[in-house]
Design a protein that fits this description.
alpha+beta; globular; 4-stranded mixed sheet; 59% helix; 8 helices; binds glutathione
């Protein structure tokens, strides 16, 4: 299985956490999107030229949640049907309501002078604040996003919260902060963070 990714990219980290947690072997291909030939090679697999992407025995699989389900089978999703739905909801929540607004804020920092979108950034900040409030309610009395078992939702949560905290700290949300502290101690995520360290200087502060 070839894993096309970059160690610094949030959605790639989500999949890496699952791979390390379950000790799934893979052949890494670090893609430098700024290099036109590498971008073109990725676009051949997935025309949006976004990662993560895997090639598994000739089959191309895209989208972090689908990749995790493809590779992990049921191991990152609870067997119980209603818990499984909760897991998928929380996975969507961290992707769509934490990682997405975080990305919009970061992307705005990378825009050329005069091309910024303060209205869009303010909207993204409000969305993040709502997400922290919702997550605070969810996380108050549980170890992981769906209960006692580490799932795909936690793989989604860790990188989303890490980068979101850099643009809008969640220090005022004690349950979210405590949950993130638990995530940082999870060996799979600690390894992902360690491997991303050399690239952290790229983050636009
Ligand atoms: N919904 C996709 C999101 C993938 C995504 O946005 N990946 C980012 C990196 S975290 C990317 O490839 N960005 C490069 C670009 O947009 O040019 C998933 O879950 O895999």
């Amino acid at each position: 299985m070839i894993f096309h990714f970059h160690p610094f990219a949030s959605f790639c980290q989500k999949v890496l956490i699952g791979l390390y947690d379950l000790e799934i072997p893979f052949e890494p291909n670090i893609v430098h999107l700024e290099k036109p030939d590498e971008r073109a090679a990725l676009a051949k697999l997935w025309p949006f030229a976004k990662f993560p992407v895997i090639e598994d025995g000739g089959q191309v699989v895209v989208e972090s949640s689908i990749i995790l389900e493809h590779l992990a089978g049921g191991r990152l999703i609870p067997a119980d049907a209603s818990r499984a739905l909760e897991c998928r909801l929380r996975d969507r929540f961290f992707d769509l309501y934490v990682a997405a607004p975080m990305s919009r804020i970061v992307a705005d920092r990378l825009r050329p002078e005069g091309q910024h979108d303060p209205f869009g950034v303010a909207e993204a900040r409000r969305e993040l604040a709502t997400a922290y409030r919702v997550a605070e309610g969810w996380l108050a009395e549980r170890t992981w996003a769906v209960g006692d078992t580490f799932t795909m939702a936690d793989c989604a949560a860790a990188p989303a919260l890490f980068y979101a905290n850099l643009v809008q700290p969640f220090a005022d949300f004690p349950a979210v902060a405590a949950y993130f502290a638990r995530l940082e101690k999870r060996p799979s995520y600690a390894r992902v963070l360690h491997e991303a360290e050399p690239y952290m200087k790229l983050f636009p502060r």
